Amino acid sequence: MKHFSRYGALLLFVIFIFYSISFLNITNFGARTSNERKESLEYLKSKIDYLQGLVDSKQSDINNLKEAFDSSFTYYKELIEKQKIFLDNIRNHSIEYFSDFNQSNQEAIHDIKSWLLKSNLTNYSSLSSLVYKSLTNLDVEFKDVFDLLPHLNGLSQQVIQPKFKQSKNRFGSIVIGIPTIKREKASYLLETLKSVFDAMNDEEKDEAVIVVFIPELDDQSFVQTTIENLNRAYNSELESGLLEIVVPPAEFYPNFTLLPHDQVFNDSRERVKWRTKQNYDFAYMMAYSQKRGIYYLQLEDDVVAKNGFFTTIKNYIVQLNTNEWMIIEFSQLGFIGKLFKCNQLKYFVNFFLMFANNKPVDWLFDIMLDVKICNPDKPSEHCLRSKTLLKIRYKPSLFQHVGIQSSLKGKTQKLKDKDFGKSFLSIVSHQNPSAKIKTSLKTYMKHTIDSVYLGNNFFWSMSPAENDYILFQFYKPTYIRRYYIKSGNPEHPEDKLYNATFHIKPQRPIQADKLPKNYIPTSDSFYIIDTFSNQLGTIKGHINPNVTGLISEVRIHIPKKTDTWIIISEIDLSSKETDTKIGSKFVPSN
Fold it and tell me: Which band of pLDDT confidence, cut at 50, 70 and 90, is reported for residue 57?
């Protein structure tokens, strides 16, 4: 009780002191002058005005940021929705898609992944869209311009799908398009392909897709023969997916008899038809190829390629300091060696079709660049400088034109790319049996028959006379199980053996009961067993040693005089069933 009284008194004392101080402060505040209060209020008002101004000044930025955020959010929301639809489409339609093709989904994905691991290209911004396109049912689509072409208006996209397609549906880093149609006197396609294949190593071939496009409308037997020749000459390339064959439908093309009169050049109707048809050809080939890779390289069927061109192109793309380009030219001639981005091909397709009958294709793509970047109010020099940003020229050229017969009837052209430099050809050597070789043909310069037999160079002779020959006399009779002889080369594709025959001379005559029906005996103990193809200029076959026994001589016989010279670029006379190739090298083409 005493303690409580003591503490209570202390508490009352503290309370008294607190109220005394408070009273004094209130009295002092009341004692302030009215001027002091006015100054305080004005100071507070200025602070409030300053803060309000600060808020107002930032509100505009906040609104702009909000607007940008809303726009970005809407864009990415739509993008996510599109990706979701894309994934749903792949999931829902994958079974339907892969029933049309002979590769499984896993194989297709594996091919793309393998290529991505190997490739050193860096511009993959359009890869996902390209993969999506490659997984659609339609090989060819013309969404933008389809309804603008009167002969296609109202038709289904299904009508313009390829009439014939031989493909493994590979996706590559570079798609190479090679169109070919019937020419009056010569075909260069097989030699062009040989040049392209010889110029690529195995790793490059694993990345590439080469599309041979056959838009021949007037001669279907030519189309069938070309397909058969490609399968015979390049079966392994077709099986691997490196090579594809595409034939367009006739429905894609307009009625050429209804084309308007040429009011620009006053060209003949035949020439207008030729360039219109050519523009449609390139448009279709581009529309097909845009789904097959990242870049598209346009070639023609009468060119030779420089060794290593594929890697050279890839490295050049990577080294460029800009990605604004639309075309890179790897040849200065026409439409040869032009590189495009696959995701931009649709712009060229539309432009080519809209002005198909007005200008040739190599003019149209240049005019398209004029429209895109040139200012009509500025000098032409400014336009040329501006176009160098979109069209880049690479030197030296990687492709050379070798054809003489144009696809336009009656036209010859001996165009050469001066920037290509010296041409080199691939020469393959085989383990041929030792032989003494004789020929009645007149050898041109150092291109002897012995040099091709040994794999050092190609054989080249002047025009043959009737009954000219090449004779191989083996120093030691040998078993020949397979043979392959190829005439012509990419630089001179017309210099082939035509109607020449291939003979063998066994050490002893073949027994009558064993003589094959296609073996024709001659008066000098030889047997005619094969004839060089007029189209290919090659022979290839097998010999049964149980029938022929040891063979002592082999002969090539030329029964008739021809105007063309003769080139033999490869000889393989093998005692083994498998290829006896022991190497290859490049030699000058002249």
Answer: low
Span 66-120, pLDDT tens digits: 666 666 566 556 656 655 554 554 444 444 433 444 444 444 544 554 454 444 4
**With left for phi above 0 and alpha for psi between -120 and 50, is residue 499 left, alpha or beta?**
left
Residue 463: pLDDT over 70: yes
Strand pairing report for 538-542 and 482-487: antiparallel
How is residue 302 annotated by DSSP?
S
Strand (E) or helix (H) holding 172 = strand 172-179
Distance CA 208, CA 244 (A): 11
H or E element: which one contains 79? helix 34-98
Lowest mean pLDDT among 77-86, 259-268, 314-323, 398-407: 77-86
pLDDT number for residue 362: 81
Which amino acid, 156?
S
The token pair at 535 is 């189209």
DSSP secondary structure, 268-285, as one string: -HHHHHHHHHHHHHHHHH
Q: Provide CB contacts within 8 A for 281, sequence distance 6+.
A: 179, 181, 213, 215, 248
Q: How crowded is residue 548: how many other Cβ atoms within 10 Å of its Cβ?
A: 23
Winning range, highest mean pLDDT, from 56-65, 104-113, 130-139, 145-154: 145-154
Contact, 365 vs 348, CB < 8 A?
yes
pLDDT score, position 104: 42
DSSP letters along 6-21, please? HHHHHHHHHHHHHHHH
Nearest to 437 by CA among 528, 573, 531: 573
Give the SS3 label for residue 393. Answer: strand
d(CA 311, CA 143): 34
- Estimate to the nearest angstrom the gap between the alpha carbon of 100 and the chain centroid: 23
Q: Is the dihedral of CA 370, 372, 376, 377 positive or negative?
A: negative
pLDDT at 68: 63
pLDDT computed for residue 124 by the predictor:
36
- State both tokens at 466: 């009737």
Helix crossing, 345-354 with 361-373: angle to 10°? 110
Q: Which amino acid is at 138?
A: L
Query: Three-state SS for 526?
Result: coil
Those residues whose C-beta lies under 8 Å from the C-beta of residue 46, and which sit 6 or more positions away, are: none
Q: Is residue 244 a contact partner of residue 210, using CB atoms and an 8 Å limit?
A: yes
CA 124 to chain centre: 16
Contacts of residue 174, Cβ cutoff 8 Å, sequence gap at least 6: 207, 208, 209, 293, 294, 295, 296, 297, 310, 313, 314, 339
| Three-state SS at 360 | coil
Is 540 buried (19+), middle (13-18) or exposed (0-12) by CB count in 10 A?
middle
Only one residue has tokens 């894609």, namely 252
**3 state SS of 220:** helix
pTM above 0.85, yes or no: no
User: What is d(CA 3, CA 325) in angstroms, rounded to the nearest whole number?
Assistant: 98
